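Hello K.,

You asked for the raw outputs rather than the summary table, so here they are, unedited. I folded two proteins back to back in the same session to keep the settings identical. This is the first:
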Amino acid sequence: MTFALPSADTFDRLLGDLLGRKVSSRVCGPNERVRYPFGAAVYDSADHTLTVVVLYELGTACSLAAALSLLPPAVAAESVKSGTLSEQLRENFHEVMNVASHYLAGTGLRISLQTVFPPPEVAPPKLLKGALTGASRIDLELSIAGYEGGRLCFVALV
């Protein structure tokens, strides 16, 4: 089975609708991938034949989470400085990643969020290795109106 990830425009529209602000992204080249510290969100298809991993930078998670509940950009910046997501930002980011399953659902499969490993937690090495060698991948650099942007990467492991 070959799994094709939807376009970046589809993800931009989904996030823009969720956050109520302009979100745009550009596809990154191989030398512009997600930087450490990064986290991982894991999605699975209903029949467990597909796993998608989203790798994301801490700053990306903080900005998306803060934008969801209209927290000031300084809250996101402080969380980045501390090296971890605050409890509120962690909950918000989990919701953003949950909604992101709709981006993946455009492929015709029912896909749901299984777990989120926020920095500094580390996803299992086997999962991270799979994310580096996945069958289908899209690396994005996001711009979020009013907030810092950042990178994230969707990888289908089949």
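The second followed immediately with the same parameters:
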Amino acid sequence: MMKRENGGEFTKGIAQPAVHALASIGVTRVAQLANHTEADLMELHGMGPKALAALKAALAEKGLTFADEKKSKSI
């Protein structure tokens, strides 16, 4: 199971297929999610809207966003 930097699970509320999908692309920490766009993650087999929303919330807790959100905020 993936862990946050502080030791807590960031995959709480995320189904195992989504957890495995993230692991398949090397995402094991919340901060690594910020290197990916929502669209990229949605293309992963096992990733769905509920998991994506939970991941977005985990990013927000750390003051981070998905890669595509960074670009739109800087415009």
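The chain has one domain: 16-74.

Happy to rerun anything if the numbers look odd on your end.

Regards,
P.
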